[in-house]
Amino acid sequence: MRDQTSRILLFALVGLILVSVISVSFSGLRGLNTRSGTVQTIQVSGTGSVSAVPDEAIIYLAVQTQDTSAANAVNENAALVTKVMQALATLGINQSDIQTSSYTLTIQTLTSTTYPPQNIQPTSQPNVSAVQYVDKNAIQITLTNTSLIGRAIDAAVSAGVNEVDGITFTFTPQLTASLQKQAIQLATQDAANQANVIASTLGLKIIGPTSITPSYNQPFYQTIAAPNANPTPIQPGTLQLTAQVQTTYEFTS
């Protein structure tokens, strides 16, 4: 009876050892297969571009005054800027679309050899200097009605603006989103076409994309507007928005 019990225990022990060995062996095979398996990929860069007329313009203007008195320079500047604001309002431009981009009050020292500014009398004595204060208020006007650009510049100059620093044309966020959608579709199709050409040439089969990374440019261009006609002619032209996608495709031979 004792011998039979011993044999049963021995067989059970051997069985447990075999199960453990088999379990370890299968576990090792799964890990080996996972480590040895490789994903074959092709990486391509696709590009897509769309063009449109910019629907937003930013005009950069400034009022500059100067006087031997700082208070006079500041007061004159404030009065002129107020007139400019009123002139722009008559065109239907909201005050919320006008903002100050910079404001400075500086001192200039002039000698008798320089051209005498307003309110400074020339002198024949050499190296005699005089001081004047220059007050500059720079503003920017954002217009989504680009047909108002020329009229806005003319009205501002007539009201007291004496510096026109240029215009930036760009897209509003709404138009940008629409153009980005079109451009990314073109870029993605371009990437897919490139991957298919490579795979076809090498006798491979594309399985599908494993990663896609898009990027866009933010188009704008600037122009200098010099009022020389009434109204000042401004043509926005067109801008191009470009999207790129870095795409990785998995393939099989």
List the helices and strands and how they pair.
Elements: H1 2-36, E1 41-52, E2 56-67, H2 70-89, E3 98-111, E4 129-143, H3 149-159, E5 163-170, H4 173-202, E6 205-216, E7 221-223, E8 239-252
Antiparallel strand pairs: 1-8, 2-4, 2-5, 3-4, 5-7, 6-8
Helix pairs in contact: 2-3
Model regions low in confidence, pLDDT < 50 over at least 5 residues: 12-36
Helical content stands at: 25-40%
Count of the domains = 3
The largest sheet has its strands arranged as 3-4-2-5-7
Strand content: 35-45%
Give the helices and strands as they follow along the chain: HEEHEEHEHEEE
Instruction: Using the CA coordinates, give the radius of gyration.
Output: 37 Å
Protein structure class: alpha+beta
End-to-end Cα distance, whole Å, is: 65 Å
CATH level 1 name of the largest domain? Alpha Beta
Give the second-level CATH assignment, the architecture of the largest domain: 2-Layer Sandwich
CATH superfamily of the largest domain: Protein of unknown function (DUF541), domain 2
Q: What's the tally of helices?
A: 4
Main sheet: strands, sense, barrel: 5 strands, antiparallel
Q: How much is the average pLDDT?
A: 81
CATH-assigned fold name of the largest domain: Alpha-Beta Plaits
